[in-house]
Design goal:
Blueprint: E1 2-14, E2 17-19, E3 26-29, H1 30-36, E4 43-48, E5 54-62, E6 69-72, E7 84-94, H2 95-98, E8 104-108, E9 114-118
Parallel strand pairs: 1-8, 2-6, 3-5
Antiparallel strand pairs: 1-7, 3-6, 4-5, 4-7, 8-9
């Protein structure tokens, strides 16, 4: 049996751009994608901490080292530059494998620099 677990998360990324006229997706700095183990084209869920909006899209490579987090297409109406978002990727994992699986959680600052890398979350801790 397979179950769905979160495998990667960019915690409190700051939206740098919202581009309504692009076809769709979310552009993410290539360094952040690599560190989070998220592939270009991978499905992600985006949760806006500022307004509660939640949506799914796919990732595209952003310029390495820029900290870009750009929501494109129709979803650009759901966020504003400066909003903090949580970007989550999920994986289907065999239940036995899931017992030992460790996700990659990147804690970001306001400039989308990684301040911490975690492999679990603890209730009651904000970071």
């Amino acid at each position: 049996m397979y179950i769905t677990l979160f495998k990667s998360k960019l915690h409190r990324a700051t939206v740098t751009e919202a581009n309504l006229n692009y076809v769709g997706s979310i552009t993410i700095d290539e360094d952040l994608l690599e560190q989070a183990d998220i592939l270009p084209g991978e499905k992600v869920q985006v949760v806006d901490v500022n307004n509660g909006q939640r949506f799914e899209t796919y990732t595209i490579l952003g310029e390495r080292g820029t900290g870009i987090i750009c929501v494109n297409g129709a979803a650009a109406r759901l966020v504003h530059p400066g909003d903090q978002v949580i970007i989550i990727a999920y994986a289907m994992i065999d239940r036995k494998e899931a017992l030992d699986f460790k996700p990659r959680v990147l804690i970001l600052d306001d400039d989308n620099h990684v301040t911490a890398l975690k492999d679990h979350e603890v209730h009651g801790q904000s970071h």
